Amino acid sequence: GGASLVVWAIAGVVALLAGLCYSELSIALPGSGGELVYIQKVFGKAPANLFLLTSAFVKYPAITIIMTRTSFTYLMRCFTDFSFEVPPYQFVLSLAGIVIVVITCLMACYSTRLCTLTINALNLCKLAGILLILSFAVYVAITAPDKHEITERFSFKNTATNIPTILLSLFGAVASYEGWNCLNLVAGEVHNPQRTMPLAITIATCAAIVFYISCNVAYLTVLPLDVMKESTAVALDLGRLALGQTGQILLSVCVVASCLATVLGLVLCNSRLLQRAALDGQVPEFIKFTLIRTSTPIISILLHGFISSIFALITSLDALTTIVIIVSWLFYMLCFTAQLVLRFRDRLKPSFRVPTLIPMVLILFSLVLMVSPALSSVGKYRSFFTVTVILLAILTPISIISTLPSLRTSGNKLVQTSERLTRFIESSGSFS
Q1: Which residues have a Cβ under 8 Å from the Cβ of 356 and sit 6 or more positions away?
Q2: Phi and psi angles of residue 375, each rounded to the nearest 5 degrees, phi first
Q3: Residue 360 pLDDT
Q4: Out of 82-91, 114-123, 236-245, which region has the weakest mean confidence (pLDDT)?
């Protein structure tokens, strides 16, 4: 009920404050690169390598599969009572995720321009979906015979008050605001960053807060609380109750379009991150090559597709979300810490500064958010937390070893294999 709106508002404020901290970092350390630049400047190359490996091999592939599964779930629910809990459907879900990843990667290999045009068109569908949701809510609110029942849905009755449950609710809401840090990746290309960065982040994040709260108000207006609790596709159920099968199909198309736009964007983003890592020597050099005919980093695109396909075998959306949030906020916390270090150790005084209390509060928030799955009374969340810790434990020594000079000598067998692959690709004449 009303408590859910409070959770969405709190998560939005956290995203806004975090974005403003990143604005200060982008002005204190000018240039593109985002977290990679900030972490390497303050903590050194090994933590920066860990961030890069975690983002490229865990975070972005996991988000890709979350989006493919969401889109396929909405598509299937138009025709059948789709459930994550039934094993045959879990297999279909994994297979569908792999198929969507393959198609989007092939599109990215063929043409970057085609991908950007497709993303723009899909985002228009997303905007249409938002307008439809809000329109349905207004229609139901006007025509509903029992308006008192709708008002009751916004009350705080039967709201859970135990801390682990509240933290898990906040955990999910924070995940939806992911993306507030993306502008820092291209901060070096922003004109007049001292003014543009904080203004752009404030406007974009406030718009996202309004969007999420408005959509949740719409859901509460149209859907009974028991339906919302059991629903695996809330927007689809809203469309069905408002306009029947037609509304269901319309909103499903909009949600699928929104998810596919994100998948395509992640393919473009992560492939360039892998290419940059190859150019810097942090991953094997052969990954850097682009196809001469289309100027696309085909090998890094295919690598992203391969990693994402492995993540498609994880059948739990909650597991994927837990992994993404923990690894994301680990490095956000490092960046907030770097912000304080730059202030007090390096005495940097950028033209835009947030109050010192804000990064300190965000560091504490990051710690609480990361351990919240381990505190949950639900066993599966503790398991997801353990899996994430294991992934980080595997990647940490790799990131440290990759900084050692001995690893880069031509006598190393891994380097020899990489060099042979690089020479073979260069000799084909199709790559640059």
Answers
A1: 340, 343
A2: -90, -10
A3: 94
A4: 82-91
pLDDT band for position 414 (cuts 50, 70, 90)? very low
DSSP helix/strand/coil, 147: helix
Please, what is the average pLDDT of the chain? 80
Tokens (6 digits) for 260: 């596919």
Distance between CA 235 and CA 282 in Å, rounded? 42
**Residues facing 431 on adjacent strands:** 291
pLDDT at 410: 46
For residue 409, what is the DSSP state? S
Task: Report how far residue 120's alpha carbon sits from residue 29's, in angstroms, rounded to the nearest whole number.
Answer: 31
Interacting residues of 430 by C-beta distance below 8 A, sequence separation 6+ = 291, 292, 293
pLDDT score for 396? 75
**Closest to 100 measured CA to CA, from 77, 75, 123, 69:** 69
Q: Look at residue 1 and give its three-state secondary structure.
A: coil
Above 80 in pLDDT, residue 390? no
The 3-state secondary structure of 172-232, one letter per residue: HHHHHCCCCCHHHHHHHHCCCHHHHHHHHHHHHHHHHHHHHHHHHHHHHHHCCHHHHHHCC
pLDDT at 239: 79
> What pLDDT, on the 0 to 100 scale, is given for residue 334?
92
Pairwise CA distance, residues 329 & 367, whole Å? 8
What's the CA angle centered on 188, arms 183 and 189, to 5 degrees? 80
Q: Which residue has the tokens 């403003």?
A: 20
Give the integer Cα–Cα distance in Å for 288 and 39.
23
